[in-house]
Specification:
Layout: H1 3-25, H2 49-63
Length: 64
């Protein structure tokens, strides 16, 4: 096979595989609800970017 075609084929195959995985697995866990409270642990000091992100995620989880 021509090397130019191989360079184009691999990204296209990866993109196609990713698209198919997203299409078939998109709603796989949509109906799952935890039986107990979920604990989110940020392993850094409060006030940093990771702590702020964890608090934002916690707010989203509490709404749902």
């Amino acid at each position: 096979m021509n090397p130019l075609h191989e360079r184009r084929l691999l990204p296209l195959a990866a993109l196609t595989a990713g698209w198919l995985a997203a299409a078939f697995c998109g709603n796989a866990g949509a109906k799952w609800k935890p039986e107990r409270p979920v604990e989110l642990i940020a392993s850094v000091a409060p006030g940093g970017n990771q702590g702020l992100t964890a608090r934002a995620i916690r707010g989203i989880w509490q709404e749902r």
